[in-house]
Design a protein that fits this description.
Blueprint: H1 3-16, H2 18-21, E1 28-35, H3 42-61, E2 68-75, H4 80-92, E3 97-100, H5 104-120, E4 127-130, E5 147-149, H6 154-166, E6 173-179, H7 182-198, E7 203-210, H8 219-228, E8 232-235, H9 240-251, E9 257-260, H10 268-272, E10 280-284, H11 292-305, H12 313-328, H13 333-340, E11 344-347, E12 350-354, E13 361-362, E14 365-372, E15 386-394, H14 396-399
Parallel strand pairs: 1-2, 1-3, 3-4, 4-5, 6-7, 6-8, 8-9, 9-10
Antiparallel strand pairs: 10-14, 11-12, 12-13, 14-15
Helix pairs in contact: 3-12, 4-5, 6-7, 12-13
């Protein structure tokens, strides 16, 4: 059964069970979106905000629970302290569901704050949906019943990246460059461990950590990469930190392969341009050129916002919530959180599962490569005439990693 038919089957089943599933039909569910709308990462934040608005409209027109989603957007300036103020403001407005994704440092602070609030305020609990903060500690040592991660974490994506690199004989010398915060540190850690296990012949010839969203000139870092003799760079950088990095590489004529987590984010594709053709790889849960519903939605988003939608986990958020609310026959956060545990549902990249033991979504991952637009890969990113085309798909079990989470149940 193809993807579109699977989606149709799910929607028909929801319709047939409308009497049970729509126990809360028409109820408004407030969601606080807390991420940056100012500073160097504002472009990425604006894209995410538009994505949440776009899919709220889509799911309000049709979702398994029949609820209406209302968004409350708050700029946290990529600051943990501002995030805590934003959470308090959202709760004061009656919000019971929070989404955030840009910055694992912010996410760690948010988890602690949500835990504390829920412990002190029984009956006013808040659930946190994390759509992009990838630090594995969030679903291991710092796991929480109230936290659900919708994207694959840093270790999962590195499993897929290194499974691909294992089969690339031209990769011999790797340079690691990452932002100096939780996610970047974990990218470095897991890259070294996974390569040692899968390709012990590969040399790590550099390992740099730089300040998050502060570097404006990456030329000195590019000079170090050149001098190291690296043929490959692995980076978890995102936003301006990746766009400026690859621009500096292009300006310096650095001809190496880049293996990335976020090369599709706003501004980076333009910085890549023709000079990076065939040399930049991206690990992700979906892709513009996968066809069907994903591509159709990406085209519609682009027409509406003159921008590229690149965060598939936004769709996961609404799909998970509405499916769980239908199952729970309630919008109460405690009942919905319980319903989300172990829930399997169909999303844009096929069937996914919210693992009960740690609240980490299990899903397939793809490796795609930067290339010219073709009839088989027609989506033009940022008007560059180039796109990311899938070269390898890995089923969920390939990138699934164990968890040390000791979840306190409700």
């Amino acid at each position: 059964m193809n993807f579109q038919r699977r989606v149709l089957t799910v929607l028909m089943a929801a319709s047939l069970n409308a009497g049970a599933a729509f126990a809360q039909k028409g109820e408004t569910v407030k969601i606080a979106w807390i991420d940056p709308l100012s500073g160097l990462m504002a472009t990425v934040g604006q894209n995410q905000w538009h994505g949440y608005q776009f899919f709220a409209q889509k799911f309000n027109a049709n979702n398994p629970a029949g609820v209406k989603f209302e968004l409350v957007g708050i700029d946290n300036k990529l600051s943990p302290a501002e995030t805590l103020n934003a959470l308090k403001a959202a709760i004061d407005q009656g919000v019971r569901y929070v989404v955030q994704g840009l910055g694992s440092g912010v996410a760690l602070a948010l988890v602690d704050a949500v835990n504390q609030h829920n412990e002190r305020n029984p009956g006013r609990e808040v659930v946190y949906l994390n759509y992009a903060a990838l630090d594995p500690d969030l679903t291991n040592s710092r796991c929480s019943f109230w936290h659900f991660r919708l994207d694959a974490d840093t270790s999962m994506k590195m499993e897929a990246l290194t499974a691909f690199i294992k089969e690339q004989p031209d990769v011999k010398k790797v340079y690691l460059i990452n932002q100096n915060y939780a996610h970047g540190q974990q990218v470095s850690k897991f890259a070294k461990a996974d390569l040692a296990r899968k390709r012990p012949d590969i040399q790590i010839v550099g390992d740099d950590l730089h300040p998050l969203a502060q570097v404006r000139d990456f030329a000195p870092y590019i000079a170090k990469i050149k001098a190291s003799g690296a043929d490959t760079v692995i980076t978890g950088n995102w936003g301006s930190d990746l766009a400026l990095l690859v621009k500096a590489a292009g300006d310096a004529g650095l001809k190496v392969n880049f293996y990335t987590y976020y090369a599709s984010l706003g501004g980076t594709p333009t910085a890549l341009g023709k000079g990076a053709e065939g040399r930049v790889f991206l690990v992700s849960s979906g892709g513009y050129n996968m066809g069907g519903t994903f591509t159709s939605l990406a085209n519609e988003y682009k027409k509406r916002f003159n921008d590229d939608w690149y965060t598939g986990s936004i769709y996961h958020a609404y799909s998970l919530l509405s499916t769980a609310m239908a199952k729970a026959k309630s919008t109460d956060p405690v009942k919905v959180a319980q319903a989300m545990e172990g829930l399997k549902f169909t999303s844009l990249n096929g069937e996914v599962e919210m693992r009960k033991s740690d609240h980490q979504l299990q899903q397939g991952l793809s490796i795609s490569r930067w290339q010219k637009v073709t009839p088989k890969a027609p989506y033009d990113i940022e008007g560059t005439g180039f796109t990311f085309a899938s070269v390898k798909y890995y089923a969920p079990y390939v990138s699934s990693t164990p968890t040390s989470c000791q979840m306190s149940s409700r």
